[in-house]
Specification:
4 copies of one chain form a homotetramer.
Chain A lengths: L2 H16 L7 H24 L2 H6 L1 H25 L11 H9 L2 H18 L4 H9 L10 H12 L1 H29 L7 H12 L12 H48 L6 H13 L4 H17 L13
Helix pairs in contact in A: 1-4, 2-4, 4-6, 6-7, 8-11, 9-10, 9-11, 11-12, 11-13
């Protein structure tokens, strides 16, 4: 075995440990859990450090913990970068090109942002306050471990136009409500609602139904306008979230339909051979469907088949 | 009739009284209503006892009522445990094994928790305050009587991964919002937002749209950030509930589809014989669909059939 | 023409004027609009009367207006009661039995409640304050004129079990949250959260996301518990409304499907004869679908048919 | 080339620049972006002007900017009006009739309202305060550029009856809640909830879950009533938005189905000739579906076809 094949097989093992979800090695699970725990601990540390007493008391420990985290996260980032050329997605590319491609994905950028400020701070003076904020970005590394986020990102990207439109409508609604209220309240009670900026704060707080109560219309006209704005506006502001939830739910539904169609095809000959099973599992992972759901869907399809003769293509049963 | 057959038939009657929903004995309904009333009365008693004046005035009665409730609930727990070996789900198991299995289900654990603290307090000194909290757990015994909860639990279990992901996103959103707001507000107005803990309280109160108004950003920068957090964050926080509602609604829809498919099969020969009717009723109960809905679905299917010749398998009508 | 036929034809005209939606007489529209205006005016009058200055200034007018309203509403009630025997729903019953049946429907009871307190007050002394509240019930008479309410009522009735379950879960959630918070806050800060009743008020205000801010946890433990309650509870409380909205939307969808199936049948022979049209209109009214939607659905079905040869039963097109 | 043909071709170019979405000229994009930027800048200017200091400091610039905006928007309005006779929708009408028709569409009225107050103010004295409000209407010009709004408007128009019903229910709910609360609170604590108007303000603030906390029930009875109103009313108020979101999502779904059916027809012969592509693009624009979605749908349909023999009419695959 030459050096290059040895490297390649180590790299493949590293890839399996860090990224490959199909062949779940026992070590892979352990490493992933350790990194998740470290990310959460970093979040907790930032929150605790903001307490000056705690920071003074445990400064040495916290600094050491930060150094330890940066080392681990740096090693993780480099290992991912090095091993990613094994990813089937970059199949047929040169290793360098695969790595550059990967380094520009959002997930890899988040990994870089998680450690870069630490190294930057060695050269440039950065206010500790802002350095802490950057350390919070490490929490975003958690997105490696939640497949559902991928579905969410797909829906968001596909509905980007609709979301932009919704934010536009919201902004116009807020500005018009704020200007109307400013005109009414300020005209009757000078000093109250003393700028459109304050009226915008009121409008956002009201239309999102947060309703702090720190700024409230006092005049009869202002309250009347407020009632109209609340009754009409609150529903309008709730629409985008409702539509997005419906779209998201539909996306999940369609993904299950795609998997179900493939299960039907695989079971059309009455058996599920290992090759078909592997192909179903890969599809299940691409679609970010929980593994338990695949097993449940196969079982229920088999149960159905046992009771009926059915059309192998549309799934509707046939007369005996 | 030997003793063992007598025991067995008493046990079967007990099972029918307490658990069996299909053969609703007249006594079953009475017993269930009495226990529901007792559970509700226990909840009311805990609320009333918290008032020291009421507690002093009616102490004897309340203590007696508590003793009475514990006795009833203990008898109920033991009766359920004893009779459960008749449950079709545990068919073919030894009686002991069936009881151990049942004792570990969430419903049985709730029943145990409803009485265990009382007995524990006979041996160990427990603060009255906490003892009352445990008595509140008796309210959870109500879950025996609402079939809809079963559907809800199924959806929750199936979507556990999605819910965990949503809680993770929420937590990250809250922590990042809180740290940004803490940095901005505390830098300009020292003393305001004086810890990240307080900023987290603000972030949760704001992002859930509760909006008490006890902590509110005061600086221009803080309000600007607050506006961005409200406009973007509030929708994000509302998504999980929206998605869960859509899933829940879909689950209910699918259960009706399953029942409808079976109704079509049963009516394929034009009549509904008693055996088919019993099988439909059992399915209706397994699926936690209200009994009235089954009757309505059968009627509308029969009406449809009367007007059309139709394909007995997919339900679409055929040309004459 | 004998007297009885004359009575009968007058009664039929009265029925057409008041209740029949299909043969919309020109007078029917006018009468309905007048009654709607009178109902709204009654609502406005109750609100204005609550202002003592306005009441004193316009007492004579308001008393006269109330008398006028009661007379009109009484005549309307009696006319509806008298004419309802013409309703196709009560076809084949004796006139008396039809009227008793109608008098017990929710709509007729609302009509009765709208005037009964006035007559009752002539005999018994009723506090003016409560008399006004009863007059507000006249607003419910508006339900005669909104077909959508019928769909809403159908969904509510069909989902009554689910709604009862949801209210039960909400109540348990509220009581448990309240008792936990009472125990935590009251133990640390005696005097704060000084009864479970107050804690229940806090829990309802928080879990519905109203968030007045009049009662707020102050201790660290209380705030931590509050965060958990808000993050988990707020979504749970929003679920029932989300599910109900989904069900309602599905009911509307199904009603359209039923109408569409009938339109396809009617158009299967390529033409829409007047008899078919009348039957479609009646179905459209039974299903509470707007008349404009029926016209639109017929047009789009005809356009589709012009472009395709299609299966007259399932609507899928056929190969040429 | 005669003058009239020259005019006609210039007019056609103007139409292409301003309105035609299919043949996106490079200049069209530039002009649209410039106008969008100008609209947004006008919104910002109105907000900034409300600050007296800023207004005094930059008065000359702001007045000049307003003049500039009015000139551009007037030119835009006239150009659209002149060019609109080229629009396929008005094909076969005389140019004058097409322009009058267009001038009465909501979009054209918004364009007119954006500039008309400026010209009006040259003749009549209008309070600067209200003039500013009219200038805010320029923000509505943004609706030219968001296709999603068209879908939204369609849903709103189609569901107008349901929305009117929902607003009616809301109003009745608010008035009844307010009167009940007024009667309860005012009877026990005179001076508190001292008019139904204030009780209505409380009811709207509560039922929309805004919850400022400026008016809050204080008596035990008032709080009990408040709890009932919150638990039942809050869900009811959230229903209309939920139903509207579901309808909106269904409308988007149906539009995609229509496009998909046309894609299937176009691909039935296995190829997509340019004529079919143009017709699909036009449909995609009529339906306000993003262009990227059309491409994606065509690709996925082609991929499906490559794997299956399928029925060209219903899309279900056929046995080999």
């Amino acid at each position: 075995m030459t050096l290059s094949t040895a490297t390649s097989s180590v790299r493949h093992a590293a890839f399996d440990l860090l990224e490959n979800r199909v062949s779940r090695l026992p070590g892979s699970r352990l490493i992933n859990r350790f990194i998740i725990a470290l990310i959460v601990a970093n979040g907790v540390a930032v929150v605790l450090e903001s307490n000056p007493q705690l920071y003074v008391a445990y400064e040495d420990f916290l600094v050491a913990f930060d150094l330890f985290s940066v080392v681990i996260f740096t090693l993780e980032y480099l290992a991912r970068l090095w091993a990613v050329s094994e990813h089937p997605r970059y199949h047929g590319m040169s290793a360098i090109r695969a790595r550059v491609r990967y380094a520009l994905t959002p997930l890899a950028l988040v990994d870089l942002l998680a450690v870069a400020p630490y190294y930057l701070a060695l050269f440039i003076q950065i206010d500790l306050r802002y350095l802490r904020l950057f350390r919070l970005l490490r929490l975003l590394k958690l997105s490696h471990y939640f497949d559902g986020l991928q579905v969410f990102a797909t829906v968001l990207r596909r509905e980007a136009g609709a979301i932009a439109g919704a934010l536009m409508i919201m902004t116009v609604l807020v500005v018009i409500s704020a200007c109307l209220m400013f005109t009414l309240e300020n005209a009757v009670l000078p000093g109250h609602f003393d700028s459109i900026a304050q009226a915008i704060w009121w409008a956002v707080v009201t239309l999102t139904t947060v309703g702090y109560g720190d700024v409230v219309p006092l005049t009869f006209g202002g309250k009347l306008l407020g009632i109209v704005i609340m009754l009409c506006g609150v529903g309008t502001m709730a629409l985008p979230a409702g539509i997005l939830a419906a779209r998201f739910s539909e996306e999940l539904h369609q993904r299950r339909e795609v998997l179900l169609a493939r299960i039907r095809e695989a079971l059309a000959d009455g058996t599920l051979d290992p090759e078909e099973e592997a192909s179903l599992e890969q599809l299940q992972q691409e679609l970010a469907i929980p593994a338990g759901d695949l097993a449940r869907m196969i079982r229920s399809q088999q149960a159905w088949q046992a009771r009926h003769r059915y059309c192998p293509h549309c799934g509707s049963s046939l007369p005996p």
